[in-house]
Write a structure and sequence with these properties.
Gram-positive cocci surface proteins LPxTG domain-containing protein, Immunoglobulin-like, transmembrane, membrane, transmembrane helix, 39% strand, 135 residues, 21% helix, 2 domains
């Protein structure tokens, strides 16, 4: 008789797989833990298997996991829950001039001005070439 959780160390909010064995492995059994509550394990290819999800806000700790078979025999193991902070945004690396988002009016005006000047220069050059080729 045994119970095993995979992975044995898990981030709060993640799921674990449970494998267990009772006499015969032909009937459902119950697995309980303060880490995830109650889960059922069912016969599957000669073992009892199931899954459980550790709640997002479960405090980091090592929790007992106890299998109870139909004949009331038990087996146990432990599950370690960690709560590593997850990055919610990128690192602060400067002013963010190339970052997406809103465009400042000054940048927009300057960009439009550069485009207008470029278009004007192109028209002047074109008109001079046209006038010069007609001679």
């Amino acid at each position: 008789m045994f119970v095993q959780v995979t992975p044995s160390t898990v981030q709060a909010g993640d799921q674990v797989e449970i494998q267990a064995s009772c006499d015969g492995n032909d009937r459902e059994a119950t697995v309980r833990s303060d880490a995830f509550g109650r889960a059922s394990v069912s016969p599957n290819n000669g073992l009892l298997t199931g899954t459980a999800t550790v709640p997002d806000r479960k405090p980091p700790n090592t929790y007992d996991v106890v299998l109870t078979c139909r004949n009331q025999t038990t087996a146990n193991t432990t599950l370690t829950v960690v709560n590593m902070s997850k990055a919610s945004r990128g690192p602060a690396t400067g002013a963010g001039g190339t970052a997406g988002g809103t465009v400042s009016p000054l940048v927009l005006t300057g960009g439009l001005g550069v485009v207008a000047v470029g278009a004007g220069v192109a028209l002047i050059v074109r008109s001079r070439r046209s006038a010069g080729s007609g001679s």
